[in-house]
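User: I'm new to structure prediction. If I give you an amino acid sequence, what do you actually give back? Let's try with this one:
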Amino acid sequence: MSGQVHHGQTPAAWTGVIISFIGFCVASAFIVMAKPVGFWAGVGVILLGAVVGGIMRLMGLGQAPKMGSKPKAEAQPQNA
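Assistant: Good question. You get back a string of structure tokens that encode the predicted 3D arrangement of the chain. For your 80 residues, that looks like this:
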């Protein structure tokens, strides 16, 4: 196997997940307290985590995209 395999263990992935986890905790707490405004604020924090992780990935702090892929096998004509 060539190259490193990160399995998402990059600063961008960790930051996005941590921010989103905080958002889930906030949303969960407010839904139990029946406070819709706090719930939606938590959902906003979850989305913020995705945006921050994506921006960090674009800045080069995420996993590099895979270069190339396996070529697809083409159908061979059958001789009868």
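You can read the tokens as a compact description of the fold. Here is one thing that stands out. The chain is about 60% helix and 0% strand.
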